Amino acid sequence: MKKIALAAALALGATPLAAEEVLRGVTAFATGTTFSRPFEAFIERVNETGAGVVQIEYVGGSEAIPTFELGNAVSDGIVDIANNTTAFYTNLLPWGDALHLATNTVQDQRANGCFDKIDMLHQQQMNVKFLARTGDNIQFHLYLTKPIEGPDLSGLTIRTTPVYRGMFEALGATLVRTAPGEVYTSLERGAIDGYGWPTQGILDLGWDEQTKYRVDPGFYQVDVNFLVNLDRWNSLSDEARAVLEDAATWIEEKNAENLDINAAELAAQAEAGIETITFEGEAAETWLGAAQREGWAGVEEIDAEIAEELRACLVD
Ligand code: 173
């Protein structure tokens, strides 16, 4: 393709075209599932709008690079662009947990300067450009194989990531951290009594077969981010960067669709036999209070200054 473009340009007597840039992209989630889908739509968009300028070659998911290794891989330039959530790269960005404590949207964060702050911190501390945030309007839940009466998780072994750790620990759970790829077999073996996961994606992964209850209300807000190796980002032409930035804001607008997708997903969970345990009144206050308190306490403990700065622009 490059050769043809060059030959065509020469034949026309024009200046040869700048070589088309090709970025290798990897997702932290299974390909074709909920949290890879926006990245896949973004790649398709870039490959259309960036023809002759920049293309993304979709290498794959956690079978290509293990989930918790993807942060290192994009930081080191082994991967050029990654679809990843902060909970999977806390080794590089320990305060990253702040992102899912946001109560506003990525559009708000672009408008109030928060996005630039988050981008700058990613660049400085992780050598990546923070290009886009997907997952707005999706919350997290606790899913269980056995019922509970109230917000007391003592005696339960729960699969976690850093997202839920502080909250579930404060409520008494015993925690095991695993990548999403290990959840199904952990449930099947009875090694865990439940797991934290967002509203969307359970059926996609087949986990409904092993899940009996979802606990409501949900808490926090999903962040699944597109990260570009900073050296690679800086090596791109302005035109290539513009293609990527345009596709980034295009995919972020689609975050609004999550409200409808959530409704369909909750209906499908009920259809699949997953019962809802809903905390109300004092129980709901304990549940959500633990989420907020422990979430921010964790970030403050890591970096009080960043916590204060981000809280001011992530929380309405
Ligand atoms: O539970 C998880 O693996 C997790 O932390 C997460 C974060 C964002 C989207 C999906 C899952």
From TrEMBL:
Recorded GO CC terms: periplasmic space
Domain of life: Bacteria
Keyword Signal: yes
Record's keyword annotation contains Membrane: no
One GO biological process term: transmembrane transport
Signal sequence annotation: 1-19
Keywords recorded for this protein, A-Z: Periplasm, Signal
Pfam families: DctP
Compartments, as annotated in UniProt: Periplasm
UniProt protein name: TRAP-type C4-dicarboxylate transport system, substrate-binding protein
Annotated source species: Roseivivax lentus
